[in-house]
Structures are given as C-alpha cells and as structure tokens.
Amino acid sequence: MLTSLHIENIALIRRLDLEPSAGFCAFTGETGAGKSILIDAIGLLCGARGERELIRSGEESALVEGVFELPAHLEKALEELDVTPEEEGVLFLSRKLTADGRSTAKINGRTVPLSKLREAAALLLNIHGQQDTQSLASPEKQRDLLDRFCKNEALLETYAGIYGECRTLQRELKERKEKAEELAERKDLLEYQVRELKQARIRPGEEAELTAEHALLANSEKVTENAHGAYDALYGSDLSAMAQLKTAMQSVNRLASVLPECKEYFARLEDVKAELTDIADSLFPYTADMEDTAERLTAVENRLEKLSALERKYRTDESGLAEKLKKASADLALLENCGEDCLQLEKDLKAKEALLKEAGEALHHARVRGGELLSKRIQEALADLDMPKVRFVISAEAGDATPYGMDEIDFSVSANAGEAPRPIGKIASGGELSRIMLCLQCVLADVMQTPTLIFDEIDTGISGKTNEKIGRMMAQIANTGNTQVICVTHAAQLAACAFHQYRIAKKEENGRTQTEVRLLDYEERIGELARIMGGLTVTDTVRKAAEELLKGGSV
To answer: N or C, which terminus of the chain has less Cβ within 10 Å?
Structure first.
C-alpha cells in the first residue's frame, strides 16, 4: 500500500507530506481546494503524461515521491520488470518535472525509463477517475481476472503444456520441410561429392606419411650412401667405433682387477655399447639399395597431388575432407528419410492438436460458466448501487489458439436500457464507469490483489443513499486487509463510511495560496461532514445529523 507521499511545487501544492493510513481513507474539501491536484500528482507518480502547466508558478521543477509497502504476491511480477524491493520490502517511486519539459523517473533511487515506472506503478496502484479505465480495459487483464475468479490454474497449466508441445512439433516440422527443400536443391551436388570423396579413399594421417616417404624417395642415393658410411663407421668394419669400443672395454676390465674403482667405467662403457648398437641397427635398413624408386616416387607424388587438389577444391585440409564426406553422406540420408519423418511429425502434431482442442474446450467451458456467475454477481452489486438497468456481460468467444487458450475474453457494459453492451473501455459516463469499477473490485477483491485503489469523485451525480452504499462497499473491500482504498469525495454519506478522513484545504502564506492536507480526529470529522451537509450555514441540527451519520457509517 501507499505509506508515504511527498509532493513539491505542483499547482497550489508548495510542499506536502502525507502518510495515508491503511484501510479506507476519504479525502474531502471545498471545491477548488486542490483535491484534483492531489490525484494529478499521484497520477504523475504512476507515469501519467507530465504537463509543464502542473509546475507551480514561479518554480523551476516539480517532484512527487511515493513509498509503497509490497505484498509478497507482487515480488515475482516486479522481478520480471527487473525491479527489486528494498530489504524492508518497500519500493520508492519518484517523478520529477522541469520547466523545460523534461521528466525523470526513478525506482529505488535508480533512474528508469518512464515506461518501466508506469508498469511498476500499475502493479501497486489503480486510479479510477471520471474517464479512467486503467488496466481493467485490457483484454489480457480481463482474461487474467476471469481465470483467477474461475480458479483455472490447473486447466491453464495443462493447456499451456500441450500448447508448448504443439509449438515444438510445428517448429520441428517447419524446419524439417525447409531442410528437405534445401537438400533437394543440392541433391545432385551432394551425390557427386560423396562419390568423389569415397573414390578418393581418404585415410587420416595418410598425407603426413606420404610427405615423409616422398622426402626419402627423392633423396634415395644420398640416404643409401650416408647410411652406409655411418653404419660402417659405427659397426661394419675392423676400425669401426664398435671395434675400438670392444678393445677399450677389454682393457678397462683388466684394469678393474687392479683398480676396483674402474669397474664403474666398464659399466658406463656397456651403456655406450648398447647405444651404438641401437643407432647402427636403426641405420642398417637405409643401407640397402632401393628398388623401383622412380616408380614409387611417381605414385607418391600423384597421390599427394590428388589430395592437394581435393583440399583446394573443398577449401579444407585432410581431416576436413573426411568431415565433408561424413556431412554430405548424412545430408543424403536425411533427405532420403525426410518424407517419412515429416509424415510422422504431421501425425504426432495432429494427435497433439486434438489434445490441445480438448484442453482448450475444457478451459472455454470453465470460462463460460465462470463468466456467467461473475456477470451475475457484478449485476447484483450494480443493483445495490442503484444501477438496476446496467447490464454487465462477460463473453468468451472462440478464437485462435494462443498460449492462454482459444478464447477472446471481453467485459462489456450496457449502461442504459435498450442499448447493446459495449466494451468496458468505451463507456462514456465516467461516474457510471467508476461505480462499475468499484463493483468489479468488490466482487473480485480476492483475485485482483491491487494493494492501493484510488477513486476520484465517484459520487458525482448520485443520491445520498447510493453514496452510503458505495461507502460501505469500499469499506468492505478495505476490510479484507489486502487493499488500501483512497476516495476523493464531495459526499458526506460516503466519507462517513471511511476508517480515516483527511481534509484538503487552501490557505494563504506569504501572499500566496497553497494547498494543505490534514488527518481529522473524531470531532473534526463531525465538523467537516456538517460543512458538506449544511453548506455555508452549519446549525446544531446539521452538526447533530453529521454525528449520527458518522456513527452510522462506521464499519
């Protein structure tokens, strides 16, 4: 609810700090005292269009700030707007206008787009004025309210789940058909690529092996000659390193019999011998003369050129060629199976759409039944407010499938006998509209869950008896404990039903007129009600009647 309101430099208001009480609060005052200015300021805080004319004469800027205590059920909705309450569970809204026409909106001290301020405020507060329908004119809001009234959560969850599955199947079928069309256009190319790459018999690592072999074959004479030289020097002659090493080992072995420390040298020479033997064995295969070198070299060069040509053609390397073959083969297999896959998807989709239709019809019937009951209750509430000829109609017409059902929900009203019902957002009479809104709020109090409701001069053009009924209905809404009701009124009967009453008045200070708001105590309420009832002359009789009215209006 709205717990604190700060206003600076708006019309007659120079500076105003107000802490509206919980429950039902009535604001009264003489004509021209500034009641409409208070509503305009709150509207500005909620994102209404900011006119420079609102700024108090002679001032450079105007400011409105509000503090709201948040009920738990709004936290998720605010999270979706990326709005996080303070630790105390409160939200600070701010709106500033400057004389040059600029506007600044803030939430919890952070500057935000005006649209975000407007969305956040709509969750916290609704203003119902002479020409104001607020969000109740929205088809989406109407559908949501009807579903809450009908307790359609389980039906909606079932429907939404099937709808999501249908959308997934539709998307898969569309993608599969588009893929099939694309592949069909490329079929000849794919078949050619698969044939060419299969014939190439590409083997991972082959190119590296061929490159190494080519280097060997291209230098065969040099390889054989140098391998012979190295092998002979290491192992293959009487003067080789191995022969000299054997002689040295024999000498060191005899020396070790005299000098025991020389045994270590013998062991180290054995390691050298093993290393020389290994190297010689590795070189030996290269000492043989290579046969058919030219023929094999040509074959290797041809194969390397073949691989290189394919890589240039497909703009990839050896591994990319293998991947290309795999992908082209997979695409051909997909194309071959696509017709059958599409038929299966269409079959699955048709079955799922049948389930969706059943779920949609179940939701539709629940909405029709709930709409009839809700319409009846609202009609009864309107009759209690002396509007027996007003017809309230809730329709649920079959439409296209959406994530929320297959219905087009519409709240319509016929304000006069003989007139066809019209959408609630197109009703001409502001007074009737405000009372219809009040009845909706009363009947749907458990599901609307709007923390603060403001009604601006809902009493216009109606009798005192009806005003008392309106006041009692507002008190009934406030008594739920979930809603704060603020009403600006000229009617004593309505104001007497409020839990708290504030007087809006003008005063002159330093040669300028300004508006002030003050919470009234019991005796002051009697005086204010007597003023409203008696006009210029407040007699003891009028005051006595005001006291009786206040006692009778207390809920």
So the answer is: C
